[in-house]
Amino acid sequence: MPANRMEQCVDVLCLCVPLQWDLVCSDFWKIPLQHICFMTGWILGYILLGTLCDWLGRRRCFLLSISLSSLLGVAVCLSNRVVVFLLLRLSQGAMLAGVFLSSYIARLELCDPPHRLMVAMISGFFAIFAELLLPGLAVLCRDWPVLQAAATVPLLLLLSYWCCASVFPESPRWLLATAQIHQVKRSLQEFSTRNGVCLLDEIYPGETLLSEIDSAYGEDCRPAYFSVLELRRTRVIWKNCLILSFTLFIGTGIQYCFTRNLHGYSSNFYFVYFLRVITGALACIFICLSVDHFGRRGMLLLSAIITGLSSLLLLALTQYLHGGLVLVLSVVGLLFSQALAMLSAFFACEVMPTVVRGGCLGLVLAAGCVGMAASSLMELQNNSGYFLHHVVFASFAVLSVLCIMLLPESKRKPLPDSLKEGESQRRPSLFLSRPDRDNLPLLCARPPLSEYNPDNYSRLVSATRRMLTKDNLPYRMAVPTRSPLLSRSETQGQENEVIS
Known about the structure:
Elements: H1 2-13, H2 30-56, H3 58-78, H4 82-109, H5 116-141, H6 144-157, H7 172-177, H8 181-195, H9 209-217, H10 236-253, H11 255-262, H12 269-294, H13 296-317, H14 323-351, H15 357-380, H16 386-404, H17 419-423, H18 454-469, H19 488-499
């Protein structure tokens, strides 16, 4: 996911630091401290700007974050003191979190259910491609301020979105969910006109969606905005948010346990860097090929199982395994931990309702940044608590397997808009139920008997014959003159016996 990619890019940026900064030996702590400050900025940005995204809208939050992050990026280029640099990086991280969060939500809200995964993964491939180009850009720039300026230029170009609303439009889904009727009608009219759906003289016919919106909401309807504090009144939404925050925290925090094993195979920094990028690309491909077919919850469960199993094997058997097996387990664990992180963010955006999607997704992504900051804390302490870090995250990975089973399935389903729709999501059964699953012997209902049964009718006729032919009856029985059940000869014989 982009927040994780940003942490990797920071490592490359730190290779081109100003000459007046001493980052070796006793001053090495400044690099992980810079990581921690940057991730702290992302955490604060996700929480604060996520709520702001639900109040102001996706477009306004995006433009505000782009503007401030561009200014802060220029200021970072001019900073020459460590304290000023750390504060500016913290602030820039907060603004970059708002850029990613608002754009991620807007992309998914503008897509129909079959294309949501494709759009999310395309943005992931763009981030991976940028990571592949970053080391070459760092070699060309050679000086850190020049590299920081080169990374800030694309943000300055995005400021053109202020003037071109059609490039980054406001989400009609959010406008309708918050009852902004005038804005949503204007937005839908612009979409239909650009797509060529409505003709010039048929924009406002009586049977269109616009007239249905007027009849459903009325003229005196006022906008209603919600914040992440509404989760206190919910049960299902809060549970889904907590579980996905937990899985994303594990997916980002446990990656340090796998990458640390890779440093023993090559002392070159770019070996681990490019290996992480390649496994990230493979994780995107794995998600594209499997999630739409097997579902979000099933693939999230599989990623958590493989991540936890790889971590446990490395924790228990590293000193007994061959070096090649340790490398394979580390690469597999790194691949599926990245898939776990990407899919958790995507899944959270799908199951959270529109009115609080910004705040809820911000909480989930903030938990992922906490996992990244935990790895930087290990580096700050010179890996003194690595074993405990590995044990905790391996145990959490096993625990997450049980939690994922409580999640709903969002494959090919529309996004929930209101809190009521978010609360109505229920988890499906893990396996397809068999048609005879509930046909237990004690609960099986007998089919009703038909009106005509040949066996029962023949037994009734034979019993009637025996009763009529008995001699030791307590009383004489009058025989009808004609019985359709008996033959004519038998009837005459019985009448003669009665007369005699």
